[in-house]
């Protein structure tokens, strides 16, 4: 892994998995650029104090009108950026029939979890491809979720948004193959976490536990530290040519990604649409 990543942009590093990834990559000697929303400014400032050399940008992905400007600014300051990790996300619980969320809440969730990550990936794609074609190995990580493959009734906007990210990662990888870029030079990686103990669902965790029969019966999250340890262990399990695996799942996320490969991926290959 060390040979593939030198400078990495982590989008959504103001807390949870993103912050934990920033800390671990920094401990491995990587140059980190971290982003978060305005409400994460103090956390990002502290992160920069804790991790010498880390730089951060306050960037709210829902402000789509500034997205291209933000990307250009980052590439101007970091022209050798070789890795982008798109990890930002929000999650809301609501009942479509009993108490539906208002339109703006749903739009914000879909924008944060699906529209903006796709636009960010597209905005960095040509830069990463150009570096790869010049001989510098590059990587694009897109965080989906085990819920992309296993939708639950609690999250009517989050689950389809993450399913969209899973599909987009696969499509992007197939289009990358058509460019003729060597497979070991640019990797598009779907990151598939299980349910992890982060602030993502803090506002509604008690409610979803209750709907599962109470905390004693409800599915409980994997501790954040355990997830990060397992993620980095999986990251080291590269292909023979040194490339990252197409999907890096942990726990339930790994099981579901494997099921997709055994089923839909096999059907896709047999259709002639992918190798």
From TrEMBL:
Keywords: Oxidoreductase. InterPro entries: NAD(P)-bd_dom_sf, SDR_fam. SUPFAM superfamilies: NAD(P)-binding Rossmann-fold domains. The keyword Oxidoreductase applies. One of its GO terms (molecular function) is oxidoreductase activity. PANTHER family: 5-KETO-D-GLUCONATE 5-REDUCTASE (PTHR43669), ALCOHOL DEHYDROGENASE, PUTATIVE (AFU_ORTHOLOGUE AFUA_3G03445)-RELATED (PTHR43669:SF3). Belongs to the short-chain dehydrogenases/reductases (SDR) family. This is Short chain dehydrogenase reductase.
